[in-house]
Predict the structure.
Amino acid sequence: MRPARIGPAIIALLVLLCTSLAAQRGLNITLPNKPDSVKFMAMGDNGTGEHEQYELAQQMVEARKQFAFDFAIMLGDNLYGSQRPADFVAKFERPYRPLLDAGVKFYASLGNHDEQNNRFYKPWNMNGERYYTYTKKNARFFVLDSDYIDPKQLDWVTQQLKDSTDDWKIAYFHHPLYSSAGRHGSETDLRLVLEPLFIKYGVNVVFSGHDHVYERVKPQKGIYYFVSGSAGQLRKGDLQRSALTDAGFDQDQAFMLVEIDKDTMSVQAVSRLGRTVDSATIARQMKKEPQATAARQ
Amino acid sequence: MTRLNSKLLAIPTIGRPAAAVALIFTLYAGCPGALAAASAQETAATPAREGALKDFNQRVDAYVELKKKMHTDLAKTKPGDRATTGKAEATEDTLAARLQIARKDAKPGDVFGDAGPYLKQIIERDTKTRGIRDAYAAMEEVPAKSPPAVNAIYPEKAALATVPPLILMNFPRLPDGLEYRFMGRDLILRDRDANIIVDFVAGAVPVLKP
């Protein structure tokens, strides 16, 4: 009988040890982590090459051990300063090497600090385009170049949104349409041209960077907005919590883990110390009734 | 044209666009009636305006044709590893050098021509509609380096400041590879593929003196 008692005790001890280690590292994945869900990571304003970027990257690696995201979205300012081949190593390839080696695909958008030729850098999967679209299971991503939203790009995104029949329509680009940060704040000009399209064609969620904070914005006209621009840069204390703010964090670098499972999206924001600084679950917005149906009534 | 109590100023606010734009807003906001009149006059599609914009488009097309000739034997950049961006830059440099030689006698206004003042009006009108913060946001990351020069390389280290999309909506459309940007208070026509300044409109962003 003795071994039967020792077995559970050892298991309990191991569980305690693991929990304690995880707690020490501050990693506690709150996402549902369903087997067939869409799992990704979001980060913005990361490419500094400074130790904070590396430390946060380490947390991404740790997070992936528990939450196996298979792609990452980059919200712009992927490289700061010099952007020679050596900088791609120091500011991207080296910090994220474990993720790249594990097959995580990165899909970048361009920020105002990114050189436009970076769209040819294969690991960012832009295929030489400033704006592009791709799908992951039941979600379609629309990647825009918010540095230069000209009529041609607007026509393109209008058509792409119109043609999309995907359950989830997710847009991301560098400049936030809504932000409570003091440095930049909401880009109202962009909002005037993009928001009507997003509403009309049923965009569900929008991710941006530019402001070096994390903010989960209260749904605006039915759309969820996130600012996640502190994966390298940080403007500590810059978040001026406003009526827009649902949750925010501006005390350390952070990134986001996102999971889409059928009609639910779960998000978790993780800091450089591995602390969960925000988590939330949102339900996919109901699509509007087609006009023809409305007319019949 | 009604210009209210404003005078375009030369230079001093370069690098400090916020104050300049705030000043613009403050002065304009005080005169809504006059503003409306000015706006109505500015938006009117006069034959002179239409002609100027048409000529501008033709000169842009001519530039694109010239560029095509300069570009024929240059390899098209394909996505690749980190060295690819360097190769793209090398292509960019070669194209820039060829265009600079081909357009060595180009002068400011050669492409914008008489369209310059109309584009300036569009910017002024846009500025009037903004709140202070928006006006600031529109200009805050514009490279302060000024004045630009025709055929000069766009400063490589400068952040590419966003051009307000509402302005772009009202400007004449440009073909692929060309774009409008601001540099200091000047509006530039930038060749994205060669990273050179094709032409510019000096003092396109208004600054008012109290």
